[in-house]
């Protein structure tokens, strides 16, 4: 957003003016504009101004009702060759995001309905196909001027990419499968951050010429088959931008949902060769993207310079004084990708939705057979190799966020949905692991055992501990363990209050 975005105070005044000076029909006539103004400073929601929040909620509900009616007339049959309603689609997507940011159930229920309709319309109109987008551009926005053609096409690619991200975020939040199928995303990869932010005709040609050529031959669906298809592999490190890593990791979430469903079905069966075979493609994909992420993190020399060019914004990548800001941006994207990788990996080993149900269940619910079975299942899981693997990645989430806490604040990662979801899942997994261990509250330095924070994830010590268990702790990860051990004053998995503060299973 531009520097002249309204402040929360200005928004409050503007919101009051809109709600008192205009009739609903007048507000809804400019739904897209009002949505952009309202969400241009989404951080205003975190200002703890109840009056402002009520105004935003009122406007949001009006917009959602309007958008539901508008989307009903946006099917391919209803449009009958007319241009796709870009602003309606964008407004719907922004309102879905806002509803989940509020955390209010009455808003979320409508947002989920809006989300389902939006995905259906994207599919119906052909937004998942590069060929359909090209036809839309040639028919309604013809031209040969390169910036016009590029940005016209990329705006559709980016809104579909954003919808895919929101779809997977909601799946991770709700425990439901994603609605968008990975294989149907037959779209080119999004352009680099630098090219999308190449404001000024003098800047565009330079950045356009320095785009990584290797990426031009790949589509989003290719990113989601890397690691599974030996015939589809990137030809060089430069193809893999952090946006590609993010899309690839989000594409794995459907696999994690399938595995969680499979695990629940066979909860009474012991680990078998079938279980290992079921997990194999999932961890193959995760391993593939972990390797690509590590390539970005370890980039140096010419490859690092290529990333600097790819992540320049308003800065000039050739100026030494601008380089620090570009590298900070790159580090922030790396942190986001690291959190996402460990978060998705936690889901590959843990049924996070069932963990949440165990945590949130009240005493009465836990007396029923289903509640007791669920607790027993999670207790058994926490003491299994998969439980210990999940705990390792939960600790890596906490460590990654702690190590870059200052950067996270600088780049607004404190309101990043993936950061929120990853930290929540990490707390859930660590809490269950400690509860299932049934150990007394004690200090880590007084315990003889393995310090998980002192060894690399692939080290023999970690591998031995995962397979054979034993006493362990993490002194390098400073966390309120007592707070994790007793969240929200809930009972432990054995029905008793716990005083634990250290992981010792």
Automatic annotation (TrEMBL):
Record-level GO cellular component terms: chromatin; nucleus
Coarse class of the protein's main subcellular location: nucleus
Record InterPro entries: VerF-like
Origin superkingdom: Eukaryota
Keywords: Metal-binding, Nucleus, Repeat, Zinc, Zinc-finger
GO molecular function per UniProt: DNA-binding transcription factor activity, RNA polymerase II-specific; RNA polymerase II cis-regulatory region sequence-specific DNA binding; zinc ion binding
Subcellular location: Nucleus
Name of this protein: Uncharacterized protein
Organism name: Pseudallescheria apiosperma
